[in-house]
Write a structure and sequence with these properties.
The chain has helices spanning 31-37, 48-52, 54-73, 103-129, 144-156, 169-179, 185-195, 226-236; strands spanning 2-7, 13-19, 84-89, 92-98, 136-138, 200-202. It is α+β, with helices and mostly antiparallel strands. It has a two-stranded antiparallel sheet. The chain has a two-stranded antiparallel sheet with strand order 3-4. The radius of gyration is 20 Å and the shape is globular. The model has no long low-confidence stretch (mean pLDDT 91).
Length: 237
């Protein structure tokens, strides 16, 4: 199944359609190869196929930037937490370090991520418009009790936290942004993440708080996730 979408110059949807299709793979690209072709980084080795397809990749990246910008403006959360690397000896952890980040490769990951999120939202709206059943990916607002603990920690660190503001995605996104330059940003981000409720699957569309999305589901990985497969079956039917 394919989502075809036409966007205007600001990334707003002009029209979409859902179609059956065949995918013919033109190349097996890597995130590093794409990042190098788009001149985001000089670290990964060049990938000839990515270099050949750079004009198309530029268009895909421009689309992803427009979509990401719109998503962030509506209040989507963007947690930037360090990824740990755990060294094991005889099955026991002996050291934990922070994985080095290549910001250029991160941009290549975001390119795919934004297009996938967009497709997932389009299909969620398609099901709702056609009054069809579905399996939605839902994420409810943060747990108030856990937020009180976060507020207490913020008081200790001399940070003002308005718990009421955390009940809207935009309010929480603004708080997350305010943590960015704090010396304890990683700890604050981690505590804020822990106050969030876990995302779950539901047959009712309850919205996705973290993505600031009115309707969201998993459509893009039917080879890995059963809920995606259910969505595909509903669409085919």
């Amino acid at each position: 199944l394919c989502v075809h979408a036409e966007l205007d110059a600001k990334g707003a949807i002009k029209k979409t359609r859902l179609v059956r299709g065949y995918m013919k793979s033109a190349a097996k690209l890597t995130y590093g190869g794409v990042a190098r072709a788009l001149r985001f980084t000089e670290q990964p080795p060049k990938q000839p196929k990515a270099e050949e397809m750079v004009e198309g990749l530029k268009v895909a990246y421009e689309c992803s930037r427009l979509l990401r910008s719109r998503r962030m403006k509506r209040g989507a959360l963007d947690f930037d937490l360090p990824e740990p690397v755990i060294k094991l000896e005889d099955g026991k952890p002996v050291n934990v370090t922070k994985r080095a980040k290549d910001e250029g490769v991160k941009k290549a990951y975001q390119l795919i991520e934004e297009l996938m999120i967009f497709a997932n939202e389009v299909v969620a709206r398609w099901l709702l418009e056609h009054e069809l059943p579905g399996v939605y990916r839902v994420h409810l607002p943060p747990d108030p009790q856990k937020l009180m603990k976060l507020q207490a920690m913020c008081e200790v660190l001399g940070i003002e936290l308005d718990v009421d503001a955390t009940q809207t995605p935009k309010g929480l996104a603004d708080i997350l942004e305010s943590f960015a330059d704090h010396p304890n940003a990683a700890i604050l981000n981690s505590l804020l993440l822990r106050s969030m409720k876990q995302a779950a699957y539901d047959t009712a569309n309850l919205g996705h708080f973290g993505l600031a999305s009115d309707a969201y589901l998993h459509f893009t990985s039917p080879i890995r996730r059963y809920p995606d497969l259910v969505v595909h079956r509903v669409c085919h039917a």
